[in-house]
Amino acid sequence: MSLIALMPAVSFGLLTDLRGFRAEIKANLREFGQDAKEEIEAAIGGGNGSMNALRVEIKADNRKLASRMDSLDGRVDKLGADLNDRMDSLAAELSDRIEQIYQLLLPAKPEP
Questions:
Q1: Does 7 reside within a domain?
Q2: Which domain of life is it from (predicted)?
Q3: Per-residue pLDDT tens over the stretch 75-104
Q4: CA atoms of 81 and 12, how far apart (whole Å)
């Protein structure tokens, strides 16, 4: 199997893996946030004013985490696009070189 044929599969595989990791991280962060919230509520055991402040703080932290994940999404997409562009460039360069070699290997035609 040629390198050119493998490039799209490798690129797609990497993007799929990165998206899978991203989804896993988001799920872990949600679970961590929920666990932290429950632990805080249990530890305080009341105090509505304090609890409300903590809820606001947790919501703000969750928004920050979501923003960071969105930023990561953008970076992953850019890396994928850059990888695809580079692979296209390399494939074109390889094709040109193969054509040059082919032209060199053609038997010389005598001039009339």
A1: no
A2: Bacteria
A3: 888 888 888 888 888 889 998 898 888 888
A4: 11
pLDDT at res. 14: 74
The two three-digit tokens of residue 89, written as one number: 């460039």
Q: How many domains does the chain have?
A: 1
For residue 26, the tally of other CB atoms under 10 A from its CB is 15
- Domain span including residue 57: 48-98
Task: With 0.90 as the threshold, say if the pTM is over it.
Answer: no
Q: 111 — phi, psi (to 5°)? A: -80, 140
Give CA angle at 62 (18, 65), nearest 5°: 35
Domain presence at residue 79: yes
Distance CA 49, CA 79 (A): 45
